[in-house]
Specification:
Blueprint (H helix, E strand, L loop, with lengths): L1 H22 L65 E4 L7 H4 L8 E7 L6 E10 L2 E11 L5 E2 L9 E2 L1 E10 L10 E3 L20 E4 L25 E4 L9 E3 L1 H10 L7 E6 H5 L1
Parallel strand pairs: 2-12, 5-6, 7-8, 10-11
Antiparallel strand pairs: 1-4, 2-3, 3-4, 4-11, 7-9, 7-12, 9-10
Length: 284
């Protein structure tokens, strides 16, 4: 009786973990077998209580404590950096390419913005730019080539559409397979982030470093918590994570160097947000 119960629970957990992983931006091989991805793998978002940000909306930034291991020993190396940072560039007033519709959703106390400029509505190519604000002046600090959903962008993201959600979302929690590189955001290190080895080898390091985008998740929880306050159909597990050279199922991916830089720079006290979308949607 006990063995049967354990088997039932294990099967349910494995199915949940697989769903979470695929949500974050990876389909894996075309022939999903339904088997558990190793020690348990993640890519969803959310926690057990609180409010969430849905597509095109923001809330107050910051974190509500930490969960899991926030520090750890050095792990295996991730994928090599592919894009050097650009020189700082002062931008007075408003952020370049961000129109009033989204600009007004950036919290007044936010002094760090990760802007994701998608090449086109149906394109998987994008550029990530980190801006910081002093007074009324935004400074362009770093820039990296990136990828978004393989089908492009949408203002009404749903599970399985392979598009990244357009909007403004807070950034409050981070984690990954590798040891904390010096993140200012709460960092959860866990083997459960590891991509299953039955995925293509190019995806194995995708989750070495991740930053949760607060879309359909509870802020203050680890990135791998699968709770979706707005329902499963709205998708979830939208992360910034390491790039594998092509589009995702909804996440935004960039180089290891870019992820390490963001982790070491994004500061809860500066209320960081991501502003993301195709260029036309951003400029509206």
């Amino acid at each position: 009786m006990h063995n049967a119960l354990r088997a039932t629970i294990a099967t349910a957990v494995a199915g949940t973990l697989l769903t979470v992983l695929t949500a974050c931006g990876h389909d894996g091989p075309a022939h999903h077998t339904g088997q558990a991805p190793g020690a348990g793998h993640t890519s969803d978002a959310g926690g057990t209580s609180g409010t969430s940000n849905t597509s095109g909306a923001t809330g107050a930034s910051g974190t509500s404590g930490t969960t899991g291991a926030r520090r750890g020993e050095a792990g295996a190396k991730g994928t090599p950096a592919t894009a050097p940072a650009t020189a700082p560039d002062a931008v007075p007033g408003q952020l370049p390419g961000i129109g009033g519709r989204l600009r007004h959703r950036i919290p007044a106390d936010s002094r760090q913005v990760v802007a994701v400029y998608g090449s086109g509505r149906d394109s998987a190519d994008s550029t990530v730019v980190l801006y910081t604000r002093q007074g009324a002046t935004w400074t362009r600090v770093h820039s990296w080539p990136a990828h978004n959903g393989k089908e492009g962008w949408t203002a009404d993201h749903h599970e399985g559409d392979k598009r990244s959600p357009v909007g403004v979302f807070t950034l409050t929690d981070a984690g990954g397979v590798l040891a904390d590189p010096g993140a200012r955001l709460p960092y959860t290190r866990s083997a459960s982030f590891a991509a299953p080895r039955w995925w293509d080898r190019s995806h194995w390091h995708d989750f070495d470093y991740v930053i949760a985008i607060d879309y359909n998740r509870v802020k203050g929880s680890p990135p791998d918590d699968p709770t979706r306050p707005d329902g499963e159909s709205k998708g979830g597990g939208i992360w910034l994570h390491m790039d594998h050279g092509s589009g995702t199922s909804g996440c935004v991916s960039l180089s290891e160097e870019g992820m390490r830089s963001l982790l070491r720079t994004l500061d809860p006290d500066r209320h960081p947000v991501v502003v993301m979308g195709d260029k036309a949607s951003l400029a509206a």
